[in-house]
Records
---
Amino acid sequence: MAADHETVTLRLPASLPIGDLPRVTLAALLRIHRVNPTDVGDLAASVQERAHEMNAAGSDVILDYQVSSAEVAIDLSGNGRTLRISAPRR
């Protein structure tokens, strides 16, 4: 991975149910970067919950996933706000 600047973006339109896509995308990135899911605690549940809240408000949701040697971070944008959820890597 090139430094801490690589980002994977997932865009979810308000017109479609988002289901488990935020959680599944995070799981795939953790596998690619060989991060043990238990090392980032409840990050997946938090991302899933916040994405559903934004989508339920009728907003498109944009998730920017970033995995570095120090942390796993997801920026969620939608419903007129941006929220960062992160967890340090152990």
---
Amino acid sequence: MSSNEPNFSDAKVIQLLQWLNDSGEFYINPKIQVFEDPLSGRGISLKHGSLDKNEVLIAIPGSHQINFETALNWIGKFNKKVSTDASDITNGVECLSGEEIDEDDPRIGAYGAFTRDILNEYSSFQLICLFILAEWILLPQWSDGKIVSWWKPFFDIFPSNDELSSIPTKWRLTRSDQNSKTLLDCLPTASSTHEQRISELVLHDWATIKPVLQKWTEQFPSPIASMDDFFLYFVHIYFIINSRCLYMEVPSKSDVRDFFTMVPFVDYLNHVNDVGLHCFPSINKFKKSSYGLGEFSIRVGSHRYDREGDEIFLNYGAHSNDFLLAEYGFSTSNNGWNYIDLTPEICSMFTDPKDIAFLDSLGYWQDYTLSKGEISYRTLVAISLLVCKDHRKTEKFSLGYISENYFEPETSDLIKPLLQNMKLQYISQVQKIRQLEGDAWCKRNLSNLYEGYIDIIDSNL
């Protein structure tokens, strides 16, 4: 490590930096440091000096990223049917670390059933989950602890199960205790919709890779793990990927859903609600690795960091707490992107199928939301029909020929008691959540979500 690099004390971080430095192309700004916070976990802060717009914080070469391309090529090191060259594995092909692969390396057998065509059928999520499962979890067991994956320094800084415990899909798929059932029951509409969508994706990907894991258990008969254990590992790895991946085009894939990469060290940058102000990702396509992947870097945005100890942030996108909780397992305070999904409440007020069909024909059926200080136009159109019972007037309103004031005070008379009742329900939910024993991180995030809802309601009353 050169003398101008940050002085990190955590052993795992030091090993990660040494591993990255071995590439000869890694860069970390000497003015930053990793810190540990009891509430938010690890983060990156300013150590000294200042950081200005477009200044590079971190730059990671393509060889040290995990994505479909690197996983595919790594498997090819052990299987010439997958490899892009005709190298003979048994003669000792050098892997990226410069070490030779021994003839009895279990990965030769484990990866031997694959062909390039088979692997190309997998999505990025599916292949990377398999790859990490094999290299991180199974390799030490297959080899009786004699072989350590070259990727281990990256794996060692992955978040623990506890750190990802607040993801609702994990409550559903990996737990069966009463707390998890209560937490799921307490999810509001928007969060529940996200959770169900993600759970379906997880189960679909599990069904796709499960046959490979079953073959591996037959191939390595010594008691390693049951399929139930594999599933728990899989879900954990799935959300490590989901919470740490960043957008990047991948040469072997054409579906935008497969365009992502995992970049070490970058995941220490925590999310901030402000969009377009703090740090941002940048890909240098002129610095490509042998896999055709560009260098991934994080640069400073328009916000200038000039106070020692200032935390340095990366915006993950304009996301509500419902989305953040479902995807990443955390929520933020004062999130201006929060909204309340009023769809169940508004839809339940319609009893005439003709009214429903009419709104549907206009494109205004469902998707009713409320944000801070604002009721969505879609919601107002639906409510106008509830209060006036006149299709022609509602259609004129939807087309902008008459204003929302035309339907007052009836609109306010309907909305106000609805919101007051919802506020009481949210307060009750917060109390119910706080009464649970344990699961402090889950309770904190879910309560924070409802407190954001209450703020939205107060701003509209």
